[in-house]
Amino acid sequence: MRTVNQPVQVQTDAQGRPVKFSFQGQRYWVQTIIDFWRESGRWWDHEPERQIYRVQTTSGGVFELEHLSAGHWQLYCIFD
């Protein structure tokens, strides 16, 4: 697993789930949402709740995407 923690552009479906995202000039299409969970942020720093999606892309890669707030996504990690 490689931690990335970088903002990414994500396109979502009508329910707000990721369907594709771009990272380092490449586009990735989500084939499967492997897992989904919510984590509360550091309340003492006033961080909001995050929604985390572990996805597999059509190219076979596995990534964790964090939805931080409206329109703000982050690529948390890439699984090798």
Contiguous uncertain segments of 5+ residues = none
Our count of domains comes out at: 1
Number of strands: 6
Indicate the percent of residues in helices: under 10%
Net shape: globular
Classify the secondary structure makeup into a structural class.
Answer: mainly beta
Strands of the largest sheet, in order across it? Answer: 1-2-3-4-5-6
Number of helices: 0
Computed over alpha carbons, the radius of gyration is 12 Å
Largest sheet: 6 strands, antiparallel, barrel
Write the SSE topology.
Elements: E1 2-12, E2 18-23, E3 26-39, E4 50-57, E5 62-69, E6 72-79
Antiparallel strand pairs: 1-2, 1-6, 2-3, 3-4, 4-5, 5-6
Structural notes for this entry:
- By secondary structure, this protein is an all-beta fold.
- Helices cover 0% and strands 69% of the residues.
- It is built from no helices and six strands.
- A six-stranded antiparallel beta barrel has the order 1-2-3-4-5-6.
- A hairpin with a 4-residue loop joins strand 4 and strand 5.
- It starts with a strand and ends with a strand.
- The mean pLDDT is 93.
Overview features:
single chain, 80 residues, mainly beta, six-stranded antiparallel beta barrel, 6 strands, 0% helix, globular
What is the gist of this entry?
By secondary structure, this protein is mainly beta. It has strands spanning 2-12, 18-23, 26-39, 50-57, 62-69, 72-79.
